[in-house]
Backbone:
């Protein structure tokens, strides 16, 4: 083994420069996640990348969607990663492949599947044998599907990442060796790389086995990282794997972004230094369904991410060209391509058409009693966490809501021995009594006017498992959702429960759709409830944005597809609706509203993401020391 890594693949390096197919090469890349963009739009986004001067696209792989339950694999539709890679190659783009198994990505639990947590001793991102066994099974299924798409086999993949930002989490470098060996045994031949901030690269040095690349938001940080990498070896090319052109949003906080002057300064600095880059994100897309993750920092608190992953990126959530895109195109052409003799770029592709379909009344509903009547409860003597539920062959519930029901007698103080994760809505005989969430100081809730044989309903929302934690924290291994330990009423433990897993899979949606108990909605109705309406389209569908103004909190399903969460606290108010999810004729809309519904919904031709503020310096570090106000 040489003192530093030497790539055996098509993409190599020498004297601080990348070499591809024997010729000098610089990587101008942008991140786009296939699982955040409907497949019908992949080529549109690839063409816009090419027109901006990019030559490469980078993507992560979400293990938790590809193997939602052990041994049950899905690589179709939105998850057809092979087709995504193939199309990128056809459009003239190379591919950087980052299969994880941990990806961060503001994605639920950093892409790891929740069934791992059924093991009470689980230690993820380590050489804990059950974790390694699960990782191996997944990668052994994934990698053979894409191995022939490597550049050395005639495909577009030129580099593959080993884990992700590992030193920011752990110093167990032996785990990186295990991941690397799995990659190699599955036929990965192309350049291997790691990426992290300066602290992570120092904590878990792996430069003898993979090319180190940098993650940073400013050239002040980048210069330090580049210097360290060059000190390891002057042979290493300078590559920023994650240059952040914007940022992501938390519920209840301002819409974040990066102003164009700061963006221009960093991108120009990378190119002036002779570096290569990957813009994370170039096109953010959407956290469809329940897949948005959350951040957690010691000394602060849990912070869940919004449905939109617009990221203030060069291409908007809907794939539109933005002023930031035009600035990036200008800089890449002048500083990156003209020195190579390339003096022009393809014409700008047109944006996908948008349409405002207007306001639609919502007139029918199913109340909670009707919804639960469609399900068979799981009976227990005490509350059970989602991941430990006797559900889906015993592997628990992955996402969504879980409802705990018990019969109670008069009492005044409800006490959760441990505050549930993540958001708790307590009701007695259908009347809401209070809410507990990540801001609650304790598990106490005052209730009153309780009659004999009353029904206690506790609706718990899994608001997204933490996808990033600081070094030294064990939070990843504690991300179980729902109610843990006992619940007491006036000091007496409640010992008999019916549990309903409200994951809103197709079988539950089908049952509600076919239920005979739909009623006309009346004023002052309170949730939780499912409501329905439809959007009639008489011509070719266009992209649109669903405005949930006047509603409280919940999730929307369009033709059975989970568009994601809405919440009145913002910053986002709209849900992006790509045209391929719509059809001519009647489009069914189901809304699960947790509190009180509005009377109508509206479809707009532009998004409402909230007033943008520039990303704070504390937010920009990888990852921030949390100083935001909540």
Residues:
């Amino acid at each position: 083994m040489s003192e530093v890594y030497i790539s055996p693949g098509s993409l190599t390096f020498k004297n601080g420069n990348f070499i591809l197919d024997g010729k000098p090469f610089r990587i101008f890349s942008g991140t786009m996640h296939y699982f955040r963009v409907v497949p019908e739009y992949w080529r549109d986004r690839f063409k816009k990348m090419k027109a901006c001067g990019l030559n490469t696209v980078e993507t992560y792989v979400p293990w938790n969607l590809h193997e939602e339950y052990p041994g049950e694999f899905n690589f179709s539709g939105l998850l057809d990663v092979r087709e995504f890679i193939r199309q990128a190659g056809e459009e003239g783009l190379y591919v950087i492949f980052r299969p994880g198994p941990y990806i961060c990505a503001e994605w639920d639990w950093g892409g790891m599947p929740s069934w791992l947590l059924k093991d009470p001793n689980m230690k993820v991102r380590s050489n804990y044998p059950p974790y390694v066994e699960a990782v191996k099974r997944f990668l052994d299924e994934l990698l053979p599907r894409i191995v022939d798409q490597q550049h050395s086999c005639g495909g577009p993949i030129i580099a593959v990442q080993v884990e992700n930002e590992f030193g920011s989490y752990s110093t167990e470098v032996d785990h990186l060796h295990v991941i690397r060996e799995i990659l190699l045994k599955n036929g990965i031949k192309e350049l291997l790389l790691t990426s992290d901030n300066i602290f992570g690269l120092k904590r878990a040095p792996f430069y003898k086995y993979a090319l180190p690349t940098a993650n940073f938001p400013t050239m002040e940080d980048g210069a330090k990282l580049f210097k360290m990498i060059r000190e390891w070896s002057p042979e290493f090319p300078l590559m920023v794997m994650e240059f952040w052109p914007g940022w992501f949003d938390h519920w209840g906080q301002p819409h974040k972004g990066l102003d164009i002057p700061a963006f221009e300064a960093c991108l120009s600095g990378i190119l002036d230094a002779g570096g290569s880059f990957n813009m994370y994100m170039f096109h953010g897309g959407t956290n469809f369904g329940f897949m948005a993750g959350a951040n957690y920092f010691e000394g602060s608190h849990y912070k869940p991410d919004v449905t939109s992953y617009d990221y203030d990126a060069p291409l908007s959530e809907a794939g539109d060209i933005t002023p930031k895109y035009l600035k990036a195109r200008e800089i890449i052409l002048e500083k990156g391509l003209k020195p190579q003799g390339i003096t022009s770029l393809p014409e700008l592709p047109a944006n996908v058409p948008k349409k405002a379909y207007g306001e639609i009344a919502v007139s029918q509903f199913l109340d909670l009693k009707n919804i639960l009547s469609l399900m068979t409860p799981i009976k227990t003597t005490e509350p059970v966490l989602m991941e430990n539920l006797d559900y889906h062959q015993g592997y628990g519930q992955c996402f969504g809501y879980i409802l705990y029901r018990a019969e109670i007698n008069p009492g005044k103080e409800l006490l959760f021995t441990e505050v549930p994760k993540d958001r708790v809505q307590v009701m007695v005989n259908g009347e809401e009594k209070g809410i507990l969430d990540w801001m609650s100081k304790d598990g106490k809730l005052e209730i009153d006017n309780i009659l004999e044989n009353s029904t206690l309903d506790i609706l718990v929302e899994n608001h997204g498992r933490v996808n990033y934690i600081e070094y030294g924290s064990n939070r990843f291994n504690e991300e179980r959702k729902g109610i843990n330990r006992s619940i007491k009423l006036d000091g007496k433990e409640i010992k008999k429960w019916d549990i309903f897993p409200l994951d809103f899979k197709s079988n539950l949606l089908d049952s509600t759709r076919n239920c005979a108990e739909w009623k006309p909605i009346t004023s002052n109705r309170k949730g939780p409830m499912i409501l329905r309406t439809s959007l009639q389209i008489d011509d070719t569908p266009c992209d649109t944005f669903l405005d949930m103004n006047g509603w409280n909190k919940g999730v929307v399903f369009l033709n059975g597809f989970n568009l994601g969460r809405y919440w009145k606290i913002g910053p986002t108010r709209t849900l992006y609706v790509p045209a391929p999810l719509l059809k001519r004729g009647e489009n069914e809309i189901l809304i699960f509203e947790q509190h009180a519904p509005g009377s109508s919904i509206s479809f707009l031709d532009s998004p409402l993401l909230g007033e943008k503020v520039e990303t704070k310096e504390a937010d920009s570090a990888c990852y921030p020391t949390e100083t935001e106000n909540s």
In short: The two ends are 50 Å apart (CA to CA). DSSP finds twelve helices and 36 strands in the chain. The domain at 369-502 is CATH 2.60.120.260 (Jelly Rolls). The mean pLDDT is 95.
